[in-house]
Every structure is written in structure tokens, then in C-alpha cells.
Specification:
alpha+beta; 35% helix; 129 residues; single chain; 3 helices; Alpha-Beta Plaits
Length: 129
């Protein structure tokens, strides 16, 4: 993996993110979730490197600049995708979410990833000085 350079920094920030459909409903395949998320990442300071959907959740590998918080990425993708889905697919969604305009569950999973193992990094740090 190549490090990115910007101004006075060199970095590689990547996150594994998982969103789950509210109530674990198996309905993702009815909607163009991948296209919507891809469009939302255009002209922003993060890149969706890999994305795959299952029946009730989505996995993303996202690379971001240091100034972009993981929470910003999650809020944008979940919030804006829900708005787009309800704007374009409200007739379908009202069958599942008749009380509220929602799509994703409230929580999310996020984990940082790197290009070295934790043990390798610990060894490197311990050998400094």
C-alpha cells in the first residue's frame, strides 16, 4: 500500500466500516446502495476503495485524509443515503418502515486497518531510542 502525501504530512488512513439495515431487514438488494454510496464519496476527502453488500448490511473499505473524521464519513454515508432512498423509493420503503423515515440501524462498526500487523508495529516502537 502506498502512503499519500499532502502538504507537510504523509499518511495512510483506512477504515473498515459496516452498516446494518434497521431491524436487520434483508432488503438491500432492492436498492442501488453501492451506486448511492459511490456518488456520495465523489468530490469529498475520502475514497471508497472496496464496497460489498449482503442482504442486511454493507461493508466498506474507506481511505481518508487526516482532516476527515471517521464519524463524518459514517454520518454522511448513512444520512445522505437514507434521504436519497426515501426520495426515490418511498413506496417500497413504507412497506418496511411505516412509522419513520429510516433505513440504517442507529449503530455502526468501524475499525482502522494498516499495512503492518499490530505485533510488527509494537516491535518497531519498542526498538526505538
Amino acid at each position: 500500500m502506498d502512503y499519500l502525501t499532502k502538504n507537510h504530512s504523509k499518511y495512510l488512513l483506512q477504515y473498515h466500516i459496516i452498516f446494518v439495515v434497521k431491524y436487520r431487514l434483508k432488503i438491500i438488494d432492492q436498492f442501488p446502495i453501492k451506486d448511492i454510496c459511490s456518488q456520495l464519496s465523489i468530490n469529498d476527502d475520502y475514497i471508497i476503495k472496496v464496497m460489498e453488500v449482503d442482504k442486511d448490511h454493507i461493508h466498506l473499505l474507506v481511505q481518508a485524509e487526516p482532516k476527515i473524521s471517521p464519524l463524518y464519513i459514517v454520518k454522511k454515508l448513512k444520512g445522505k443515503s437514507t434521504i436519497i432512498l426515501w426520495k426515490n423509493y418511498s413506496q417500497i420503503l413504507t412497506r418496511y418502515f411505516w412509522k419513520e423515515h429510516t433505513f440504517w440501524s442507529d449503530g455502526y462498526f468501524i475499525s482502522t486497518i494498516g499495512n503492518v500487523s499490530e505485533q510488527t508495529l509494537q516491535k518497531y516502537i519498542n526498538e526505538q531510542g
